[in-house]
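A quick word before the example. In earlier lectures we treated sequence and structure as two separate objects. From today on, think of them as two lines of the same record. Here is D,D-heptose 1,7-bisphosphate phosphatase written that way.
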Amino acid sequence: MSELFEAVLFDRDGTLIEDVPYNGDPARVEPMPGARDALDRLRAAGLRLGVVTNQSGLARGRFTAGQLAAVNRRVDELLGPFDTWQICPHDDTANCHCRKPAPGMVIAAAEALGVSPARCVMVGDIGRDMDAAQAAGAAGVLVPTPVTLATEVAAAPAVAGTLTAAADLILRREALVTPVPRPGRAGTVLVVRSDSAGDVLITGPAIRAVAAGAERVILLCGPRGRDAAELLPGVDEIVEWRLPWIDAQPGPVDPADMAALTERLRATGADEAVVFTSFHQSALPLALLMRMAGIDRITAISEDYPGSLLDVRHRGVPPGLPEPERARSVAAAAGFALPAGDDGRLRVIGAARRGPGEYVVVHPGASCEARSCPPDTLRGIVTALAAVGHRVLVTAGPGERHLAAYVAGDLGEEAGRTSMPELAAILAGAACVVVGNTGPAHLAAAVGTPVVSLYAPTVPYGQWGPYRVPNVRLGDPAAPCRDTRATTCPVGGHPCLSTIEPAEVVSAVARLAAPAEIAEAVA
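And the structure line, produced from the sequence above:
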């Protein structure tokens, strides 16, 4: 089994072949440049291939079922064989679950191939292709054409200029999480993720990879990530320490504190260390202390020259890579891989989704102001969800009780402040979670609950959005705050999130309910 993906699904028109509107003539089928070579390289890597295509021309009478079949046979002759074909014959008026942006065909393709949607990647040329992939929990790569809208490019989880580049990206992502050989099982390994709860959660798959190849795993984390660290599988011991070069509100560097940390690192008895950082953080200050503590082998990402601080200097990680995969690539560089049967999703101890859920959770808070949806917008969302019959629970983080009460209004139910395990249990019982880019979004992904992401584009969605769980992104992806990493909204009125209409959220919740209905139909 491959480390990351098992199948690649393609849109047909504009992606595999030139887009000829309502084409019923096999003679007019023309492959996109580089298509055959890209597909053959993916097949050679052991990936199964499928086609997922909207064909409303059948419903509109623009071609017959026989003509559609003849065109598809010609595609197979030129570019196949494909392992599955999924075709939606409906138009937009049918309100079906198969027509993209609904996830039905992606889910059906995964079912036909015997894989999870989370182990699939969808390649297409318009936003509907990406929306369908995300709503199914699959990865997506957009290959724009002249008809692709700028907002679709801005919203895409990943973008490649050509089919060749898309294949390169998929194979590169696969290679990054494929471990290098290492001499046998490790002893005690110190893993590090000193950041917020969400950052710790998205490092979980990489930590499980280390745990699969080590006798003992000790996690060094900061106080903001401690509660999440307690929920991670594979962790035997936790060391909590605030690192001033990582912490969001750092104090001065205290020599006595650094000396104490060095001795604490020595006391772990770790044989080696794997340091996980975000793309904007440096592992080198901690690596120096680890070296002074006598840790023999240290692995981390470092674009800066590390001298003798690192034994394994991991480089070449492409920008925008999902953070869980970035962390897994560090573990792989150290020689650690997930065990067979672990699909690489986020996971926590003690809570997991068991059914379609009985209510919708709205979590109004966020770790910084720039990522927080305005309270009035959220209050309108709660009202709209309740109006169509949803039971709505409003959860609160530390210091957010008054915010939750306002957002809940008269129609929502306040869940009150909860511990991390309690919040995980609430999220596991939800039909979906409406939340910004903050820790509970990743906690929802870790328990397998779909996410309606009210996402400020201050950091890339493909990098920080909900990972390998059905999701719908809402908000302006091309707002002026895009990629600024701002913590306070730099634009008056918070236009990236305040413009979200409650009806969009209602529609998104309905789209995420479709997979449960499809699963019931398949069963």
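Notice the following. Residues 98 and 243 are 49 Å apart (CA to CA). We will return to this example when we discuss secondary structure assignment.
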